[in-house]
């Protein structure tokens, strides 16, 4: 069925709320730091303030240093977040879209108690020009809250493929409400074709298998984001959350220069008791391989999507309706392959 099969043991202890996999990490503390590093990129809009005002900035590309530069000058007439005190503490944040996680965010310092902040700061991205030209710049303004519940004040998106790169002057732009795609996280990243099955302990004979097994057959991916003219060099990572240790980590081989890669790779995790299926989550992510860093293309999370794992609230138990239904079908049909075609998303 596949060119390679990986098998790994995934053990849970029953006397703890948090699972233990024998790793040197501190269970849930390590999970939150790893999963949260990606999830924090997609910070929510906690405020109910209407976007208003303008932002002044300039764009430039430094050919010598291969660096995209955003000169953030100032903002005017921003919305007031704290009505009682008549104040906002604004800062400016930027991403390169469609993949926020790939290049990461940049942000200015926070200017306190002003609706007309002056920054005069340069935000920089090390990126090749031809890659930059298939991106969009998302520049947004936020009120900084000490408790972390930052309020959205407005944004602007610029298609860098059509940008006039001879224009290096500071210009004013009106801040707009959040776009529908940004609010709903709607961006097409391709679809993954896979099959999964659960083999309960002892279902194939006495003590066969000795513990439950989850089989994941990664077949292929269609219509990946093309980051370079030559295509993408993609591979798939797999973890069974909450474990993010090396014991849980598996990956496919790299398929080069193909936006429709065929992997045909099977992974087997044993050590699964039936009750663990309610609290564990299989995370599959697709990445573009480069020498210095791998770029996130999209992923799925297969689980019940309850927001809880072993009695603890976790951000990563966030499966979509399609992903939940796929996982439930596997749980209700022991020893049967369940086939699915699921859209990749920003995790």
TrEMBL record:
Keywords: Cell membrane, Exocytosis, Membrane, Repeat. GO terms for molecular function: neurexin family protein binding. The keyword Cell membrane applies. One of its GO terms (cellular component) is plasma membrane. The keyword Cell membrane applies. Residues 51-173, 188-317 form the C2 domain. It is found in: Cell membrane. Pfam families: C2. InterPro entries: C2_dom, C2_domain_sf, SYTL1-5_C2B. Residues 1-12 have a biased composition (Polar residues). This is Synaptotagmin-like protein 2. It comes from Turnix velox (Little buttonquail). The lineage of its organism: Eukaryota, Metazoa, Chordata, Craniata, Vertebrata.
């Amino acid at each position: 069925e596949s060119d390679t099969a990986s098998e790994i043991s995934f053990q849970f202890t029953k006397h703890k709320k948090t699972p233990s996999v024998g790793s040197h990490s501190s269970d849930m503390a390590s999970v939150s730091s790893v999963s949260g590093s990606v999830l924090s990129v997609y910070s929510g809009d906690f405020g109910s303030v209407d976007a208003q005002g303008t932002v002044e900035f300039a764009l430039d590309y430094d050919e010598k240093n291969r660096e995209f530069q955003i000169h953030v000058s100032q903002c005017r007439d921003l919305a007031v977040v704290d009505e009682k005190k008549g104040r906002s503490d604004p800062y400016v944040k930027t991403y390169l879209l469609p993949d926020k996680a790939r290049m990461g965010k940049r942000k200015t310092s926070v200017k306190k108690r002003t609706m007309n902040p002056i920054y005069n700061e340069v935000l920089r991205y090390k990126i090749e020009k031809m890659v930059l030209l298939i991106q969009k710049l998302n520049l947004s303004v936020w009120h900084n809250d000490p408790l972390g519940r930052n309020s959205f004040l407005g944004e602007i998106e610029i298609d860098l493929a059509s940008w006039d790169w001879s224009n290096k002057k500071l210009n004013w732009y009106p801040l707009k409400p959040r776009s529908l795609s940004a609010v709903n996280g709607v961006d097409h990243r391709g679809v993954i074709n896979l099959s999964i099955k659960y083999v309960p302990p002892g279902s194939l004979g006495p003590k066969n298998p000795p513990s439950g097994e989850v089989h994941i057959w990664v077949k292929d991916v269609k219509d990946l984001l093309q980051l370079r003219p030559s295509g993408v060099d993609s591979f798939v990572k797999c973890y069974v959350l909450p474990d993010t240790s090396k014991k849980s980590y598996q990956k496919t081989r790299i398929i080069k220069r193909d936006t429709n890669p065929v992997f045909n790779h099977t992974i087997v995790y044993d050590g699964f008791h039936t009750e663990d299926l309610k609290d564990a989550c299989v995370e599959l992510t697709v990445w573009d391989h480069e020498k210095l860093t791998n770029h996130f293309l999209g992923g799925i999370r297969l689980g019940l999507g309850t927001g809880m794992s072993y009695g603890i609230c976790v951000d990563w138990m966030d499966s979509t309706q399609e992903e939940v239904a796929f996982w439930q079908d596997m749980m209700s049909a022991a020893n049967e392959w369940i086939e699915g075609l699921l859209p990749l998303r920003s995790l």
